[in-house]
Amino acid sequence: MVRIPHATHLLISLGLCTAGATSAPAQGLPTIPVFDTPKESAQAPATPVTTPPATPPEDAPPATTTTAATPATPPAEAPTSAAPSPAAPPPATAPSWEAEFEQLPAETRSQYIMEMRRAKDLYQKGDTELCLLALGSCELLFSNNPHALNLQISCLLDLNRLDEIPALISKSKELLPDNEVAVFSESNLLLAQGRYDACIAVSQHMLTSPLYKLTPLVRDILKYRILLSHLAMNRPDQAREQVKGLTPISDTPLYYMSEAAFNLVEGQLNEANRALNAAQTIFGSSGTLVGFVRAFNQSQLADKSHAAATE
Predict the structure, then answer these.
(1) pLDDT greater than 70 at residue 170
(2) Are 126 and 21 in contact (CB under 8 A)?
(3) Which residues contact 70 (CB under 8 A, 6 or more apart)?
(4) Separation in Å, CA 150 to CA 126, 176, 213, 224, 236
(5) With contact defined as beta carbons under 8 Å apart, do 190 and 198 qualify?
(6) Could you tell me the residue range of the domain that residue 296 belongs to?
(7) Structural domain contains residue 253
(8) Which residue in 9, 28, 198, 252 has its CB near the most CB atoms, within 10 A?
(9) Considering the chain, what is the average pLDDT of its residues?
(10) Residue 172's pLDDT band (boundaries 50, 70, 90)?
(11) Which pTM does this prediction carry?
(12) Using 50, 70 and 90 to split pLDDT, how confident is the model at 301?
């Protein structure tokens, strides 16, 4: 049997190493939106009318320029008192950081949006270092965009600069409560730090909480992190619970990536290689493997398995 002592060797041979990947946005991360051009606060001056009609509903068409009509007399048999209409829900208010952004000069906002889009494009191309530089330019203009912080966190995770991340996660969650991207990154960070029980707790919270609207791919990546955490703590039975019912025809990389992990900890490197090859063949062109490979690398499962085999 050919022994491959390090996970990266196994992954590079299949073209699965995340460095320089061009499919980052397809990895299953909740979307990191570009902060689009905000609505201008200036409104067109209202056309004066001499006799305003009753306030129409919000979805009514614009009023035509006609003279005010005399209200119709209700029929005699109409009830004298109607049931009160339900109160209209209060209008949604923008997060405070958006209101703060709106106060910036128009030129500054325009420059910020351009730099933010450039940063996202660089990340999608795998230019992580250049993305961080672009985000630095964004921060000089406006430092309280949680979406920019989430993108910065993703870059730092890719570069394994873990010590810089917790403060950014805290700030992102403070600026945008129920921030699923920040919590998703927190789960990733805990796995990379080897805090496996904490990773399981955060991942399970995301999977079960109604606060988060997760895609099937994001759910599968969270399950894979839980699986890897259990394997890292030598709990294979709990790990297998995450893929219970999956088969080779299940339309998810989770089946093949989990088989690779199980075979690896059992010392079956040839079988692990076959599972990774199958994952690459079936899902490689779609970009959906990136989140699973990142989790596999950050769990350091291959290093731990190799260390145990050589003791």
Answers:
(1) yes
(2) yes
(3) none
(4) 16, 11, 17, 21, 32
(5) yes
(6) 219-311
(7) yes
(8) 28
(9) 77
(10) very high
(11) 0.70
(12) confident
Q: How far apart are CA 154 and CA 131, in angstroms?
A: 10
Q: Could you tell me what percent of the chain has a pLDDT over 90?
A: 59
Amino acid, res. 267: G
The answer to whether the beta carbons of residues 10 and 302 sit under 8 Å apart is yes
15 half-sphere exposure, CB direction, 13 A CA radius: 11
Q: Say if residues 3 and 269 touch (Cβ distance below 8 Å).
A: yes
Task: Map 59-84 to HEC letters.
Answer: CCCCCCCCCCCCCCCCCCCCCCCCCC
pLDDT tens by residue, 81-138: 444 555 554 445 668 999 999 999 999 999 999 999 999 999 999 999 999 999 999 9
Mark 293-305 as b/e (b = at least 16 C-beta within 10 Å).
bbbbbbbbbbebb
Yes or no: say if 165 and 201 are a contact pair by the CB < 8 Å rule.
no
In a domain, 47, yes or no: no
Please check whether residue 111 is in contact with residue 37, taking contact to mean a CB–CB distance below 8 angstroms: no
Residue 232 lies in a domain: yes
Place of tokens 């990773």: 199
Give the DSSP letter of residue 292.
H
**Residue 114, H or E segment:** helix 106-124
